[in-house]
Every structure is written in C-alpha cells, then in structure tokens.
Amino acid sequence: MSAGELKMIDIFASIASYSVGKGNHYIVLLDEPINAIDQSGINSVRTIINNLKSKGSIVIVACHDKEELENLSDEIYTLFEGEIVGHRLVVNNGEKE
Length: 97
What we know:
Blueprint: H1 3-19, E1 27-31, H2 39-54, E2 58-62, H3 66-72, E3 75-80, E4 83-91, E5 95-96
Parallel strand pairs: 1-2
Antiparallel strand pairs: 3-4, 4-5
C-alpha cells in the first residue's frame, strides 16, 4: 500500500471510530490530512471534513498548504513557536472577512 492509501485508511478509521452509532458532535483533529494523498483522496478528505462540519462538529486541521486551508476553513489561526500570532475568518470559499 502507498503512503497515501495508508493515510486515507487512518483518516477513515479514526472518524468511523468516533461516529458509529452516535449522534453527538465531535472535535476532530487532523494533522496534514492531504499530505501524500492523490487527487481523488484529497476530494474524499474535503467531503469528509465538510460533512463533519455540516453536522455540527468542530474540525481542526494542521496544514502547511495555504490554498487548501483557504478552501477548508471557516477560521485560520497562525502559530509561530507555539503561540497564536494571527487569526482571521474565511467566508465564501476563500474570501476573507
């Protein structure tokens, strides 16, 4: 299996273990969820994140891909040496407020 395939299995298993048979909202932490994944995998991750958000979950994504963060995020926090050094809201697919 490729690194991307293993990453996808890890993401699906993590989310499934929290979601099965429960109707609660969750806080989901994803570290570099699109790293080493092909385009179809990236699309799947985007769908998963958007579905979780639409059901009321909070999804926190650590990612170095600024374009992807713009597409996935409602808010972006910038960290430097463990401190929050920036915060902004993102509305309408990348248009900043």
